[in-house]
Amino acid sequence: MQLDHEHSWQGSTSPSGFNKVVGGVRNYINEIKLFSRNARLYLLGSFLMGLNFQVFLLLLNLYLKELGFVEGDIGLIASSRAVGMTIIAIPAAILLSRVRLKPLLMATVVLFAFFSYNIVSSQTLILMICWSILSGMSFAFYRVASAPFYMRNSTKTERTHLFSFSFGMMILAGMVGSITSGKLAVLLGEYTGDIITGYQYTLYIGIALSLLALIPFGMIHSTKPSKEEKQIRISKEQFKKRGIFYLKITSANFLIGMGAGLVIPFLNLYFRDRFHLKPDTIGLYYFLVQFAMLAGSLAGPLLVKRFGLVRTIVSTQLASIPFMLTLSYSYILPLAAIAFIVRGGLMNLGVPIVTNLGMELSDKKEQGLVNSLLMVAWTSSWMVSSAIGGHLIEQYGYTFTMNITIFLYLLSSLIFYYSFRNVESRSTQHSGWALIKETSA
C-alpha cells in the first residue's frame, strides 16, 4: 500500500474575525458556482424526490396509527423499505457502473411513485409490506447512483461542498414537506370530515410532486461509465484486498443505522403519544429540525476545513448525545422540542461528510461499490432495528428504547474515530488538513 496526500482543506488566514466570516461566505458561494450543469439538475431532482420522501416520513406512521395499526406493525412496514434497499443496493451498484444513468433514473422516479401510491391505497399489513419492499428497491437505484454521479461530475475543488449541498437539498425538501404536509393533512381532514382521508390525499400529493423529478433528470447529459467504473467487481480477491477498509467504513454506519432505526421512525408518534400533539404542530417541529439539519450540512465544509473530516464527524455526533438524553427523559414539551431540533442538526451534519470520506478513500472503480456498501450497512441495520423498535416501544416505552440508541451512537463514534483517526494530517503547506489516501497496488 502506498500513501499519498490526495486532498487538503485550507483554512482562512485573515486576522479579522469579520473578514473571516465574509471571506468564508464568499468562498462558499464561489464553490457553489463551480457546480456542473449535471450536478445542478441532479440536485433539483433530489429536491423533488425528497419532498415525497419527507411527506411519507412525517405522515405515514400517523396515517397507519389512525387506521388502527399498533407500533409493532408500523415498525414492520417502516423496515420493509429498508429490506428492499438492502436486497438491491449492491446489484444496483454493479448495473449502474455499466450503463447510462439517465434511463435508470427516469424509471426509478416512475416506479417509486407507483409503489408509494400502492402503499397508501392498500390497507392490509401484508400488502403494505410488499409494496414497501418494492418502493425501497426502486429508491435504492437513486440513492446508490448519487455519490458516484457527483464524483463523476465534480472536481476536488468543490466536491466537499457538493456533497454537503446535496444533503442540504434533501433537507430543504424536508423543510418544505414538513411545514406544508402537516397543515395540509389537517385542512383536508377538516374539509372531508375524516382525518384518514386528509392523510391519504396529502400522501398522494407528495407522490405527484416526486414525478416532477422526471423533468430535471430528463435534462441530464448522460455519459457512458468510464473504464475504471466498469471494472467494479464483487469477488473474493477484491474483498481480500480491500476488505479491512470496507469493514472500517461501514461498521460505524451499521451501528448508527441500528440505533436510529430503533427510534427515528417513531419520533412523530413520540410527540403524538407523550405530548398529544396534532399533525400540524408535529410538522412544525419537523420543519425546525430540518432547518437545523440544513444549517448543519451547509456549515459542514467550514468545520471540515478547520477540524478535518474525521474529527468533524465524531465531535458533532458526540455533541448530540446530551440532547438525545434530554429527549429520552423529558416530559416538558419545550425541552423535548429543543432537544429534538438540536440533536437532529448535530447528528446529521456528518452524513454527507462520511460519504465524501468514503469516496475520497476509494479508487474510482470501487466508488459505486463503497457507496452501496455504506447504504447496505445503514439499511440492513435499520431494517432490523425499526422492526424491533416498534415492539420495544410498545412493550417498554420510549425512554428505554432511546437509551439503547444512545449507547449505539457512542459506540459508533468511538469505532469511527479509532478506525480513521490517522487518515488525515495537518497540512504543512496550508492551514488546514490533508487526507492521506490508501491507494491499492
Description:
Strands 1-3-2 form a three-stranded antiparallel β-sheet. With 441 residues, the chain is mostly helical. It has helices at 17-33, 37-67, 71-96, 101-121, 125-152, 159-192, 195-211, 214-218, 227-230, 236-263, 267-275, 279-307, 309-319, 321-329, 333-349, 351-360, 367-396, 398-420; strands at 2-9, 424-426, 433-439. The chain has 18 helices and three strands. It is globular, with a radius of gyration of 21 Å. The protein has a single domain (36-220, 231-439), classed as Growth Hormone, Chain: A.
CATH architecture designation: Up-down Bundle
The name of the CATH superfamily reads: MFS general substrate transporter like domains
Outline the low-pLDDT stretches. 1-14
Main sheet record: 3 strands, antiparallel
CATH class: Mainly Alpha
Q: Would you count the extended β strands for me?
A: 3
Measure the end-to-end span.
Answer: 6 Å
State the helical fraction.
Answer: over 70%
Which percent band covers the strand fraction? under 5%
What does the overall shape look like? globular
Q: How many separate structural domains?
A: 1
Query: How many H/I helices?
Result: 18
Strand order, sheet with most strands: 1-3-2
Radius of gyration: 21 Å
Give the oligomer, counting copies of the same chain as homo and different chains as hetero.
single chain
Q: Whole-number average pLDDT?
A: 83
Looking at the structure, the CATH topology is Growth Hormone, Chain: A
Give, in order, the helices and strands: EHHHHHHHHHHHHHHHHHHEE
Structural classification: mainly alpha
